[in-house]
Amino acid sequence: MVFAHDTVVALQAAVALANSALEPDTLTTVDELTGFLDTWEYTGRRDGTAAELAEVRALRPALRELLLAERDPAAQLVNTMLADERAVPQLVRHGRHDWHIHAIAPDAALARRIVVETAMAMVDVIRTGETSRLGVCADDTCAGVVLDLSRNRSRRYCSAACGNRNAVAAYRARQRS
Ligand SMILES: [Zn+2]
Ligand SMILES: [Zn+2]
Question: pTM for the whole thing?
Fold first, then answer.
């Protein structure tokens, strides 16, 4: 594994959140937000309100920008995010999760916690020189963010749907030639 478990989960969640903004938008209701939080096992405060949903939705362009940024600008974005939120890294242990880092209080607003968690995960990505593991989906018609955690850096598509669509297209192209 390239990164610590909490970093991996935070990156995967951030990618899923950024990609939820692609058409058709899959984060349009409080129920969909709850589903997202359950999928990624978010702990801490949840308001379950339209305001919270709006804050999380509004976050997505900034998350996408950070995830796709080159290394040096990404470092600047991370520093700004952590300073703005006055992040204080603390080792915590809760539930079945062994010692890992939280850098913002669990009762802070959800959108703020997502910003800090993503920024902390990007700290690992940047200092290990692994920003190339984040990129845009190789499907011509898709702008999805791809997180490639494979050992041989072979992941090119944001989703199984994009991968399958391109496998079928490549197969058809071979049949024609
Ligand atoms: Zn935790
Ligand atoms: Zn895609």
Answer: 0.93
